[in-house]
Amino acid sequence: MSPTAHDDSASRPPVQSAGLIVSSLVGTLVASYLGFVSLSHRGLPLGCGPAGGCAEVLSSRWSAVGPVPVGVLAIPVYLLLLVAGLRYSNRLAPWVRGAAALLVFAAIWFIGLQFVWLRAICPWCMFEHCVGLLSAGLAWRLTQSTAVVPTTQPIVGAAGALLVLAVIQAVMPASDTTQRLAADDRSAGVDAANQVSLLQGSLQLDPRDEPQFGSVAAPRTLYLMFDYCCPHCRRTHEYLQAMLAEQPDAFNVVCLPMPRAAGCNPAISETEPRFQYACELAELALAVWQADGTKFSEFDRWLFETTAPRDPDAARAQALRLVSEHQLAASLADGTGAAKIRRNVDAFNASQAEYLPVLLAPGMAPIVGRPESRESLFEMLQRDFLH
Fold first, then answer.
1. pLDDT digits (tens, 9 = 90+) for 155-201
2. What is the fold, at CATH topology level, of the domain defined by 179-384?
3. What is the C-alpha to C-alpha distance for residues 25 and 17, in angstroms, rounded to an integer?
4. How many other C-beta atoms lie within 10 A of the C-beta of residue 284?
5. What is the pLDDT of residues 266-314, one digit of tens each?
6. Which helix (H) or strand (E) is 267 found in, with range?
7. Rounded-to-integer distance, Cα 275 and Cα 266, Å
8. Do residues 260 and 230 touch, judged by C-beta distance below 8 A?
9. Given the DSSP bridges, would you call strands 252-257 and 221-226 parallel, antiparallel or unpaired?
10. How many whole angstroms separate alpha carbon 129 and alpha carbon 148?
11. What are phi and psi of 175, to 5 degrees?
12. DSSP state, residue 307
């Protein structure tokens, strides 16, 4: 009788088994940690700053299925491989191969999303996917050392499961990842010199000296802190533009660029690829406003029109269609825009905000992060700002 054909508790190579035990245990711990961070709403994983890729990736629609973080969904997969490493049997082989294939497909999918779609990298997520690929390779080798098991069915099943997951994430409404900070005192909002105090006093400004869109005669002013390279900022900008199209006299929006790039933000140690031109785009926008305030709104909309951030050369060409080369050069040279960026960056870094965008107004608890939808944002503003 052949032991590999009939013995259910087939022998396993000790090195492969030990490696699978270690890698699957590490994968379980990392997935559990990321799931805990997401579910407990206790900020970001260790080592991740508010302006890094972790915040961008872990607050995206692809980070969860409804209220369940994708890291939590990975835990049973790693536990299955852990059991296989501890006590492997031929009976487990199809399940082990399916789990291995699922980890490979998931790594390809989620790494691709970070590089291609989000253009932001979460180091913790990348580490987990690397552990997943290692676990998958060790698990697959483990099944090859025993009886012949089907290959096609586990792979097809894993591909189908991931496809269903991706479709669910694509069609489900994005979860609301907004954070609410302590409200600024309404009485400290505007003083006799028209100075506005926001973010518990860390941001002081005169709205008349800032770029804005909407009606300047509107009875209320909303302050938007954002980055032109941030996809969540782009979506929030769209929501605000749509609301103003329906209620043009309800409020106006003061724009406060806050780039997430090391070139103008000391809190950023390494700039994510998506944000490599954040400083340049913010400076160009402020230069257009300084050269001709009536052209700012058009340029601001243009910068946010595309899913991917605008190239600075294209942005400069667009700016020169709106203002003269002399005006643009003079505005860039005098340092006003750079000073405003430093002020905005310092205020954000001194605050408890963890994400962009940030919506501010005297007397309103700041809204931090991406609202779930235009309706969700309108509901918050109607309750806390427009009442």
1. 888 888 888 888 887 777 665 555 555 555 444 455 545 789 998 88
2. Glutaredoxin (3.40.30)
3. 12
4. 25
5. 999 888 888 999 999 999 999 999 999 999 999 999 999 998 899 999 9
6. none
7. 14
8. yes
9. parallel
10. 28
11. -70, 150
12. S
Total-model pTM? 0.68
Residues 30-75 pLDDT 10s: 999 999 988 886 667 887 765 557 877 887 888 888 788 999 999 9
The secondary structure of 200-230 as a DSSP string is TTTEEE-GGGS-EEE-TT-S-EEEEEE-TT-
Token readout for 57 is: 């990736």
Q: Considering only CA atoms, give the Rg of the chain.
A: 25
Residue 4 tokens read as 């590999």
Q: Which two tokens stand for residue 36?
A: 């805990």
3-171: which CATH number, 1.20.1440.130, 1.20.58.60, 3.40.630.30, 3.40.50.1100? 1.20.1440.130
CA 356 to mean position of chain CA atoms: 9
Measured CA to CA in angstroms, residue 236 lies from 111, 121, 324, 383 at distances of 25, 22, 30, 17
Q: What are phi and psi of 158, to 5 degrees?
A: -65, -45
Three-state DSSP state, 179:
strand
Q: CA 176, 177, 183, 189: dihedral to nearest 10 degrees?
A: -90
Identify the CA nearest to 8 among candidates 95, 96, 88, 97: 88
What are the tokens at 274? 């998506």
Number of residues assigned to the chain? 387
